[in-house]
Design goal:
Blueprint (H helix, E strand, L loop, with lengths): L6 H7 L19 H10 L2 H5 L2 H14 L5 E2 L6 H6 L4 E3 L3 E3 L7 H5 L6 H4 L1 H14 L5 E6 L1 H10 L7 H9 L1 H25 L3 E6 L7 H22 L4 E5 L6 H4 L6 E3 L6 H7 L4 E6 L8 H15 L4 E5 L9 H13 L3
Parallel strand pairs: 1-4, 4-5, 5-6, 6-7, 7-8, 8-9
Antiparallel strand pairs: 2-3
The structure holds coproporphyrinogen III.
The site of coproporphyrinogen III has 23 residues, from strand 3.
């Protein structure tokens, strides 16, 4: 299948582009009334995510409505722990909850390494439908959580500001922690390979909780597992990989040495400094999502400043984290148009 708009993929591979490509983390869902209508029809987030036709529909919405240069498959990072044997609930406004958790070796022995083709077939089916329906208009991004971020949810059982239960385990029981991280890693490698086989054109690893670790802990409990994933994918495919480790400003140099093509940045990470620390890779980010609450003039100023500092090559415009649910879609559209109109 030949892509009509492959700007995003060319930028990811470090090839020359005519203009900067743009998409938004968490663009599928949350901000669009059209998403909320489909979610209403589905009845719940989980029903929506596990019904391939509906998941495909909301994946394509931002391409049609917002004009982004890439689609991201509608799913969640928490489908992996579910596939390993820990079901979750998505409580409206409160976020995910795991009724069962894993905090010791006995509980770990009860969970399995997920088999993507059988346990996550609904995501793979959604990818196949999206690829068919997009018909080459833009590339499709697959994704998974980084092992450490998944570990946080599996041990804590819900969201947290500090994830102190998860962090306590790293100190108190490193052997258990490594064993759980390895099981998650093995599941994730199988899952991302399956997403690529199903048609994903690039895969992104979200380490959303990277920033709660010290540099030493990050080096011990997160980075080696992300490295395993990048290496395993590089061995079997040429599909580019993006690593986004929110808050891990201290690890940029090491992340830049992974076998990935793109490094995602949050808004605390300076563009020029990041270019120095991460040579030879494409950078993605990093507008503060709160800029989209500002007026149009301010948005234009901030976005232009961002584009000027990153430059037009080896760069993918995005936010520094997911778009906030109460953002005005018109402001999102304005962000996208401003990027598309930019010339150096
Ligand atoms: C940490 C994390 C999660 N999920 C995800 C992350 C990593 C990225 C990040 O740091 O934001 C990733 C994710 N979750 C979702 C996507 C879909 C694709 C996209 O648009 O980017 C992606 C890429 C859908 C979703 N995942 C969720 C929703 C909202 C559920 C609903 O519709 O009620 C959507 C559209 C729920 C979810 N899922 C998660 C939480 C904490 C919550 C509740 C709060 C929230 O809305 O963010 C876990």
């Amino acid at each position: 299948m030949i892509l009509q708009n492959d700007l995003f993929l060319r930028a990811a591979r470090g090839e020359n582009v005519e203009r900067v490509p743009i998409w938004l983390m968490r663009q599928a869902g949350r901000i669009l009334p059209e998403y909320r209508a489909v979610r209403e029809k589905a009845g719940s987030f989980i029903k929506l995510a596990t019904t391939p036709e509906l998941a495909a529909e909301v994946t394509i919405q931002p391409v049609d409505i917002l004009g982004v240069d890439a689609a991201i498959i509608f799913s969640d990072i928490l489908v992996v722990p579910e596939a390993m044997g820990l079901p979750y609930e998505m409580a409206e406004q409160r976020g995910p909850v795991f009724p069962q958790i894993v905090r010791n070796q006995t509980e770990l022995d009860r969970i399995k390494i997920a088999d993507a083709e059988s346990d996550l077939a609904y995501v793979l089916d959604a990818i196949k439908i999206v690829k068919k329906e997009l018909n080459g208009r833009v590339p499709l991004i697959g994704f998974a959580g980084a092992p450490f971020t998944i570990f946080c949810y599996m041990t804590e059982g819900k969201g947290s500001k500090t994830f102190s239960v998860a962090k306590k385990l790293l100190y108190a029981d490193p052997a258990f922690s490594h064993a759980l991280l390895q099981k998650i890693t093995d599941s994730t490698i199988d899952y991302l390979k399956a997403q690529i086989r199903a048609g994903a054109d690039l895969v992104q690893i979200f380490d959303s909780w990277a920033g709660i670790l010290s540099p030493d802990q990050y080096r011990t409990f997160s980075l080696p597992y992300i490295k395993q994933i990048c290496d395993a994918l590089a061995e079997t495919t040429s599909v580019p990989v993006t690593v986004f480790a929110k808050g891990a400003f201290f690890a940029r140099q090491e992340i830049g040495q992974l076998s990935c093509s793109v490094v995602g940045l949050d808004w605390n990470m300076d563009a020029a400094e990041s270019r120095q620390l991460i040579p030879g890779k494409t950078l993605q980010g990093n507008l503060d999502p709160c800029v989209l609450y500002a007026d149009y003039g301010q948005i234009k100023t901030e976005v232009t400043k961002m584009l000027q500092t990153f430059g037009t090559q080896r760069y993918i415009a995005n936010l520094g984290h997911g778009v906030y649910p109460d953002t005005d879609p018109q402001k999102v559209k304005y962000f996208i148009e401003t990027v598309k109109e930019f010339t150096a």
